[in-house]
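A student in our group prepared the protein record below, which I am reviewing. Here is the record exactly as it was handed to me.
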Amino acid sequence: MELLPDELMNYTELNESLSNSHCLNLSNERAARGILFNAAGSALIVGIMPFLTALGLSSNFAFLYVVYSRPKMRTVTNAYLANLAVADISFLISATIPAIVQYNASKIVFDQLAIGVTGCIIVNYVILIFFYASVFMVFLVSLERYGAICRPFHQRVVMGRARTTKLIIGAWTIAVIFSSLVIPSLASLKITCVTWPEGEEFQSYPSQFGVCVPLEDWVNYVSNGFKMVPFFTAMFSSGYIYTKIVIQLNKKIPGLAHRRRYNKAMSRVLRSRKQIAVMLIATGVIFFLCQAPAQITTLARIITDNPDIKPLLDDGQRGIVQWVSRVLLFINSAVNPIVYNVTNSKYRKAFVETYICKQRKKVSLQTISIKSLYIPNGGSTEFYRNNNLELNTL
């Protein structure tokens, strides 16, 4: 979940140069261009990321306002989803702003000199908090739906506002603790000087750059474990839970066919449960699919650090995978409220009533309807026409 690419460079020879020296001689123009932002990288930083951030902020704030303004939306499920929205908003802000600052300061892809050692620690620490919080909220909402659908009577006994609050506070607390354990992996700034190729094109680039690195090499492996284990544990556990929910929803209720007067009411309840389940499963699947490439990339890097193992991808391909994985992280944080509206009619209705019907109500209050007035037979309507008032026949 680091803000910038996990691998410092796309070219192996440059990695070797960095590991052996604090000065980098880039006499090869191809190698020199390899550490600079290309057109795709620039488009990501100045175009795609800000767009997805704007979309995510507007959609998540809109969802939070709907939950706040409509009492019927203040459910246990939405308590978790509201905290997920807060985590998404915070991630988008804390990832986008430093990335733009670094891009404006240097056109070297991985240059973090602009944020310094303090930025290495704080920026990545904050981003990791929201990453862990998102994982835990998605898992908690999966557990809540499992209890409501597969163990409804037990759920009614144990679940309440106090327990939900404790679980949410616990999730954020664990997120803070886990993020603290990862700090040593990015708590140092390695400054490297650069000798660029001769030519006017390269003379405007900085003579040095900085990279956030671990305090010790072994720390990186431990920290990556702290990042991956909670994610993959939550992913596989949620997959099992989703399977149990789908199986339970497809079961027929014994004797329901003989209770005709309850059929309509039960059908509405079951339809509502299915919609919520589909919505949350879709949210979870999108979350894990969007997060998985970044985690798999980290796992692959750990494995291929072994010199006896040949990487499946070359340096250029790994660079593409890293950029794509970062776009997916932003997409994931932006689309959740859209998923809610697409998959659940109750959420669509709540959004419509909050943002569309509310505006119509304001407009209607400004219009004087003649329905509220009594006009005797033979009464003149000329007054209303002259004053541009609405006339409705009783």
Remarks:
- Residues 1-21, 368-375, 377-394 have pLDDT under 50 and may be disordered.
